[in-house]
Amino acid sequence: MSRLAIAALILGGGVAVLHAPCLIAPSRARVWLAGFPRNPWAGWLLTAVALAWSAWLIMHIPLGGFDKWKPALYVAAPLLFVLVVLLMDELLAARALGGLLMLVPSPLLDAARPHESELRLVVTVLAYGLVMAGMALILCPYLFRQAAAWGTRTDTRCRLWGSAGLAAGLFVIVLALTIY
């Protein structure tokens, strides 16, 4: 199985799993989505994952003359986590989700680059879409709340979004199993 197939399986599975609650239990999903941007535990968890991933990336990329400062990350990353959760607690979960959405495309694009099939562009387009969504959430975290309110105004609309997300996730999984 190629790296692109594995990356597409993870991406498709993640998209399908995240949209399934909207299809299965729309009323509970609507309540959860409305409270997500201000959920402190989700904000802390997503911030920790995003900062750990960022620190790991910095530790493993060549920085030339700045390589000597890499050991400071062992102190700077936890300190930055504390500062972020204390000083940027407003809509932190949506901002941290935006940060993760900007980190996820890197391995996807690395896996898609050497692949021969033109259908690799499906993953490439999704990756760039994730980057744009991540930038929007970091800059304007209230957009998550507005989009969730619009997309889940009724149980029917919530089920439609859940079905669309589940179908998109399954499409990427089928591509991973057949083409990639």
Describe the protein's architecture and organization.
The protein is mainly alpha-helical and 180 residues long. The chain has a domain at 3-38 and 91-178. It has helices at residues 3-24, 26-35, 40-60, 73-87, 92-103, 105-112, 120-139, 142-151, 155-178. Helix 1 packs antiparallel against helix 9, helix 3 runs parallel beside helix 5 (92-103) and helix 5 runs antiparallel to helix 7. The protein is flat, with a radius of gyration of 18 Å. The mean pLDDT is 94.
Features:
180 residues; 9 helices
Summarize the model shown.
79% of the residues lie in helices and 0% in strands. By secondary structure, it is mainly alpha-helical.
Topology:
Elements: H1 3-24, H2 26-35, H3 40-60, H4 73-87, H5 92-103, H6 105-112, H7 120-139, H8 142-151, H9 155-178
Helix pairs in contact: 1-2, 1-6, 1-9, 2-9, 3-4, 3-5, 5-7, 6-7
